[in-house]
Amino acid sequence: MDGAPRLGFQFAPNYVAPDWPDGESQQMHLDLYVDDIAAGHAEAMALGARLLKLSAHPESAERFHIYADPAGHPFCLCWG
Prior knowledge:
- The protein is of the alpha+beta class.
- It has a domain at 30-79: 2,3-Dihydroxybiphenyl 1,2-Dioxygenase, domain 1 (Roll).
- It has one helix and four strands.
- Strands 1-4-3-2 form a four-stranded mixed beta sheet, with helices on one face.
- β3 (63-68) and β4 form a beta hairpin.
C-alpha cells in the first residue's frame, strides 16, 4: 500500500433505504485496509470491537476479517 487512505464500496442487492428520522437508522459497512492485520486486529479489539468472522482463506486474494463496533455495526479489516 502507498499509505493513501482508501474506501471500498460494496453492492447490496437487498438494500432498503432508511426512512429518516422515523424509520431504520442509516448504516454503512466500512472496509478498512491495514498493512498489518495482527496489529489492526489488536487495535480494533482494544477499542471495543467484537470479532464476527475470520477470513476463511487468509492467503486468498480477498483477505478480510469481519468485526462489529461496540454498537454492533459491522466493518471489515482488509489486507493484501
